[in-house]
Amino acid sequence: MTDAQPPETVPGSLYRAAWSFYLALAIAGVVWIGVRQGEITSGLFFDPAGWWIDLGLGLGCGAVLLVSWRLGRRLLASIDELEGQIRDALRGITPAEAVSLAIVSGFSEELFFRGALQASWGWVWGVVIFALLHAHPRTFIGVWMLYALLAGTLFAQLTLVRGNIAAAVIAHVLVNALQLRRLARVATAQPV
Predict the structure, then answer these.
(1) Which DSSP state fits 11?
(2) Which residues, other chains included, contact 144 with Cβ-Cβ below 8 Å and sequence gap of 6+?
(3) Looking at residue 114, what DSSP letter applies?
(4) In angstroms, rounded to a whole number, what is the distance separating the alpha carbons of residues 162 and 176?
(5) Which of 43, 73, 151, 192 has the most other CB atoms within 10 Å of its CB?
């Protein structure tokens, strides 16, 4: 009897599946907000008079999250294991595709979790559900879920303070873009 080998992924399949998932999540958020409010105004997305505040807060909170992950990498071996699994999943995705996934995932998740769910059920439920959906299959309460709890709390507070999702989207996209690009670049460089 031979050892079972993991199924090989078709190049681009994760990329297409992720785009499809995030498009569906964004549509669900839009429908939820539309049904709840009757209309979706630009005020949900940004404040034209205070866009620079959203930009600064988003970049600042994104930087805090990136530094906290970097510190965690030095202290917790489980982060290296998790990053290895993410690198394996990203194999075949170019760094540019990773950045595009970061943009679509950051926007779609914030539209759904902060724009729709938080506005309907409150920020605590939004954060808890966000974190639970980031639970890692091997370790239900793992480092990724705890990090998502921290990130979700920051994103929720940004949305509450600013009254729109712009700062949360900027922070989320920044974190995802830098992390996914780094991991995709390493995954592409590793031999298959």
Answers:
(1) T
(2) 82, 134, 135, 136
(3) I
(4) 21
(5) 151
User: How many H-runs (helices) and E-runs (strands) does the chain carry?
Assistant: 8, 0
What does pLDDT average to in each consecutive run of 10 residues of the chain (192 residues)?
49 82 98 95 94 98 97 86 84 89 97 98 97 75 87 98 98 96 75 49
Please tell me the pTM assigned to this model: 0.88
29 contacts 115 by C-beta, under 8 angstroms: yes
Q: Which of 49, 36, 42 is nearest to 165 (CA)?
A: 42
Distance CA 130, CA 112 (A): 10
Residue 24's identity, in one-letter code, is: A
